[in-house]
Amino acid sequence: MKLWHHTLSENDIRQCLRIATGASIGFFLCKFFNWNYGVFFTVTPILLLGMIPKMTGHAARQCLASAIVCGLEVGILGGIFGGHPVQMSIIVFLLFLYKFACMSKGSLFLFGANSALSLSIMLNFASYPATDLNDLIFTNLGASILSVMIAFAMTALIPSIENDTKTSGTSKSTGTNTNTSANTSDSTDTASLDQAKAPSQPQPQPQPKRRNQTRHEMLMGATIATLSFLMFQVFNLSDSMSAQATSVLLLFPMHWNGTLGYARKRAMGTILGVAVGLIGLLLLYNWSGELVLVLPVLWIGLMLCSFTHVKEGGGSGVGFGALTTLGILFGQYLTPNNDFFFSALYRVSSILFAIVATLLACYLVHRLLNSFEATRYGQ
Q1: Residue 45 near residue 22, CB atoms below 8 Å
Q2: Count of CB atoms situated within 10 Å of the CB of 224
């Protein structure tokens, strides 16, 4: 983990501002207009602004396509086969299989990742009779459209700046004295002679992913995601969305070693996000229902978690886990009739249990797939 070893640049600070402000805007609009499923409006901007170096049209199309495809899958297939557990389990496995295939390809990773996460959450919500399926589908689509707009707005209002270090370094070097120039020239000539004598070494090219590795990633991801869905259905865990999302997020490294490394970071990020949320709740005390007071507390908490995220150099680490946990807590569970303190503590215990169960299942499936040549990941 590269925490505290990455020096913050001005662009890193700007990314922190984009993440915190974008997620806060999504949270504000959701609560102000009293929209359901606030988690979509808070976490999706975090995903777009925290995991993508620069918001592009290709990323926006993948995000919108994932929302449309998941809506059709949940609405049509879930509505037809929802009352048939065996058929539905097979369909869910096939749906997750092609989503992890998209992730394995690389160019459609965002589409596959967002689709897998949204499908897992939406299928769990849709399986309960009290859920309005149309409201769920169109809310997810609306949240994706709004999140893309927020991401583009943040990129335009708080853009990254070009690094002028090389330019300033060049300007300083031209103003040096004659002796320094001569020494530089001599050292350059010597380096050129050494390079001429040394044999040319071609740059290593990235090796294409083998087919058996692709099969391994697809089958392991689809199997664990389907088992997670079945587990939440069998035990009727309707209030454990954080744990369900964690069981899918752990699969994003696409192999056992990556999942094992990310599990520890996810656990630390969950504890950090819950701690920041509880501190914010204690500061609000009896005013947790006042949106004008909640919003700056959430923004400060997101800035702190974003600071951790960029200090790690980006990627799915402790900071990103803290961001998503904080977004889920405030977006989904901060309501007047909900015990936020109990929800926060329940999130910690359920996520830690989900991490252990997912790791055990990943290890068993990994060993099983590695026993066959056609699905062997590595040595």
Answers
A1: yes
A2: 25
Contact 232, 244 (CB under 8 A): yes
Asked whether the beta carbons of 73 and 95 are under 8 A apart, the reply is: yes
Here the tokens at position 208 are 């294409």
The residue type of 246 is T
Residue 333: which of 248, 263, 274 has the closest Cα?
Answer: 274
Q: What is the pLDDT of residues 157-214, one digit of tens each?
A: 999 887 644 433 444 444 444 344 334 444 444 444 344 334 444 444 445 677 888 8
Considering 197-201, 230-234, 298-302, the range whose residues carry the highest mean pLDDT is 298-302
Q: How confident is the model at residue 256 (pLDDT cuts 50, 70, 90)?
A: confident
Do the Cβ atoms of 146 and 41 come closer than 8 Å? Answer: yes
Considering only the C-alpha atoms of the chain, give the largest distance between any 2 of them, rounded to a whole number of Å. 84
Terminus-to-terminus CA distance in the chain, angstroms? 25
Q: Which residue has the tokens 């996460």?
A: 117
Q: How many residues does the chain have?
A: 379
* DSSP conformational letter for 375: G
pTM listed for this prediction: 0.81
* Distance of alpha carbon 160 from alpha carbon 143, whole angstroms: 25
Backbone CA torsion sign across 38, 277, 246, 313 = positive
